[in-house]
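--- STAGE predict ---
source: upstream dedup step, 1 unique chain passed
mode: sequence only
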Amino acid sequence: MVNRSGQSPRTWGILATRSGTITILLVRRAIWTCIGVCLSLTNCCASLVPRRRLPVIVSTVEPYRTVVEELLKSNVEMATIHSRLVREHGYRGSYSSVKRFVHRLRPKTPDVCLRIETPPGREAQVDFGGVGKTRDRATGKLRQAYCFVMTLSYSRHQYAELVFDQKMQTWIGCHRRALEFFGGVPEEIVIDNLKAAVLKADLDNPTLSVPYTRLARHYGFLVHPCRVRTPEHKGKVENGVRYVQRSFIAGREFVDIEQANRMLLEWVINEAGVRDHGTTHEAPLKRFAEIESSAMMELPAEPFELARVAQCLLASRNLPPSSSWRCSWMMR
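--- STAGE serialize ---
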């Protein structure tokens, strides 16, 4: 069927059915042609209208970028960076602004681990960490120094002290001063496999040194050496050591180790103790004073005294000097 113009009704979108009902259909090609025209007109109009640019928000920490980068090179913690910017450079922004700025400078992928919480007074964790060289007042020379840290696992309150070695006498003395600082004794202490404490590392049956065993018996705590090369088993004190390294040591200079320890003790109480802890979201000193302090065991009436071994020569009048006897004796 052809109309007068010689075109088929299908061209005009007219289709006759058997029943004689005429249905008008829109031709697909015409539809898509109309849509294409509309899109072209839209794009043309859009090109004539200037695009609105989103405002660029500059961080309030940006003016202190150089200071922040220098502190990051020294591995200073973000909380300490914020406090130093406020105290030393007059910064008035929030800690969150510093945190976002640092994350843009140094993005990192967090490690996944399982955190185990313990009841108040149950556990303390102990570790050493290197802190660079510090001047020895006795000799006037710089010596390698280490930081001893004991962290209470419930409150995260800690004791810290700088020393020049990790020998037995130093190890025992640090424990004694730490327990006196807390005014109590935890039920157990988790330690690394330090030579001064562990003679033979074994997860099920470790061999402890005699002086450290006597110390534990004197104060009544259990000793739990962690598995070899697994620092995450004492993650609370590992974090405590890093916190001292990055928040107290980094970017500071000290006259000698005595001055450093005086400042460190003040820092533990006045800064580390009152900060909002990232895990507990409470101040460690407040958590310790209100809950954990009363849950710890009492200190013994007398402090522990380390027995030292000294050697002497005993010479006999009836024997030549080459025949002198050598002996060992205990002194307190």
